[in-house]
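Hi R.,

As promised on Friday, here is the backbone we talked about, encoded as structure tokens. Could you run it through your design pipeline when you get a chance and send me back a sequence?
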């Protein structure tokens, strides 16, 4: 009997042990058991779960509608080729100016932004963007002056993608010329004087070709326009100070001189990295425009399309100076565009540009680099030019005779000695505000000259400091 009890208890204990073991094994998930074991190697999820998705990107631009459509098409091609999802956002000029800096400061901006190249270095100094490799997409083939615009502290902070020179647009029904537009202020002054009230007959009798005298003959005014220019001779966008500077330059009232001897009134800027220490001197004779100021009226920021291009086409405005990108989209019969390189030095126009930058807080740096490289490659730049006449940055586009017509002389490739023209213009852009006020009759000529003299003094002190260093 005792032996039987002992055997029975043993059987019961084994049974209870098996029952408890079964309950515990059923209540603990297999994955948890593996996690609990320090020797367990966690294996990846099976292939049926799919590959890990790539980071998504957001790109913010400020483009005209047609250009944004083109970018969307190219972006879709990039996504199809790479599998990287990229969201595009088209902002207004006001948003780009006011909201983008705030978003960058709060690290809530897009991963990639398309900026005016003039804004690249200010963004870099604030630590908002990352440096880029300029050779990753042929970026090292941009003109030297443009490379200077995006370099700071030994690094390239933007990848240039578009050039945009200012150009002169005019109404061919009003202004007809077999010899081209005037190349200096003397020629423009003749045009204005010959078409002033009471002188229409002289304009009608002007021959198509005059003897060469160093001055291009003024355009012949067509009979359809009453042999007179309209009351408004020139227009530009009021908020665009570079357009106003370009207008002065094109008229010959403001231009650079590459000489060492100082002149007055002028403002000089030193070339910092040339083999020879040279200077560019900006000379202005704006006072000669005073009798004609009433014929120069800008388009206000509130102007509608009817107030701008429709008036130009209707002959209510004779000339306008605008960015090439705008002229290429808007100019149609009876308007004509003067290529920026057609103006003979010292006359010329400004050239602006746009660059892609990479936000420092992005979580998709490598993917963003691939997107920028794709959008700035030479073949894509060519496509932009062929479809929408957007000028490329690659110097190869401007090495031929036909390409030279697209850019003013100081901004063409291989013009190393003149690359500092752009760099020396920062003070001019500050002075342009005063010039705009003077054009509007809100500032006296004496005060305008004082503003110019102040620039000369500031730059003179700056050059003295550089020489001492």
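Update: got your reply. Pasting your designed sequence below so it's all in one thread:
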């Amino acid at each position: 009997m005792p032996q039987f009890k002992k055997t029975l208890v043993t059987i019961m204990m084994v049974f209870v042990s098996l029952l408890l073991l079964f309950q515990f094994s059923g209540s603990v998930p297999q994955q948890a058991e593996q996690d609990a074991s320090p020797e367990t190697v966690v294996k990846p999820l099976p292939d049926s779960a799919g590959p890990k998705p790539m980071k998504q990107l957001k790109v913010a631009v400020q483009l005209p509608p047609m250009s944004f459509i083109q970018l969307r098409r190219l972006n879709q091609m990039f996504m199809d080729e790479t599998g990287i999802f990229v969201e595009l956002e088209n902002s207004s000029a006001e948003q780009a100016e006011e909201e983008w800096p705030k978003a960058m400061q709060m690290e809530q901006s897009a991963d990639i932004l398309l900026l005016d190249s003039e804004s690249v270095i200010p963004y870099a100094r604030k630590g908002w963007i990352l440096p880029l490799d300029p050779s990753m997409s042929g970026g090292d083939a941009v003109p030297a002056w443009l490379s200077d615009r995006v370099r700071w502290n030994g690094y390239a902070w933007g990848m240039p993608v578009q050039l945009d020179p200012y150009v002169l647009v005019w109404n061919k029904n009003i202004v007809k010329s077999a010899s081209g537009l005037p190349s200096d202020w003397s020629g423009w002054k003749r045009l204005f004087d010959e078409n002033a009230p009471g002188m229409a007959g002289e304009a009608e009798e002007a021959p198509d070709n005059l003897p060469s005298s160093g001055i291009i003959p003024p355009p012949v005014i067509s009979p359809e326009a009453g042999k007179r220019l309209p009351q408004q001779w020139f227009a530009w966008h009021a908020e665009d100070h570079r357009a106003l500077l370009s207008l002065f330059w094109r008229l010959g009232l403001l231009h650079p001189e590459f000489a060492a001897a100082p002149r007055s009134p002028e403002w000089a800027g030193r070339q910092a990295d040339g083999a020879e220490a040279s200077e560019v001197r900006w000379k202005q004779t704006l006072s000669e425009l005073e009798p004609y100021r009433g014929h120069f009226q800008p388009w206000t920021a509130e102007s509608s399309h009817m107030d701008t291009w429709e008036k130009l086409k209707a002959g209510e405005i004779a000339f306008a100076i605008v960015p090439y990108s705008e002229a290429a989209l808007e100019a149609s019969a009876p308007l004509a565009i003067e290529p920026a390189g057609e103006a003979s030095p010292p006359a010329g126009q400004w050239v602006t540009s746009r660059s892609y930058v990479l936000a420092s807080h992005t979580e998709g740096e490598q993917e963003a680099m691939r997107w920028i490289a794709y959008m700035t490659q030479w073949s894509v730049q060519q496509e932009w030019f062929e479809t929408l006449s957007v000028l490329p940055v690659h110097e190869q586009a401007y090495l031929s005779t036909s390409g030279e017509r697209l850019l003013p002389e100081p901004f063409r490739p291989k013009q190393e000695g003149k690359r500092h023209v752009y760099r020396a213009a920062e003070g001019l852009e500050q002075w342009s505000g005063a010039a705009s006020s003077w054009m509007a009759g809100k500032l006296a000529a004496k005060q305008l000259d004082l503003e110019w003299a102040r620039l000369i003094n500031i730059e003179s002190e700056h050059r003295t400091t550089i020489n001492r260093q």
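One thing I noticed while checking it: DSSP finds 17 helices and 16 strands in the chain.

Thanks again,
M.
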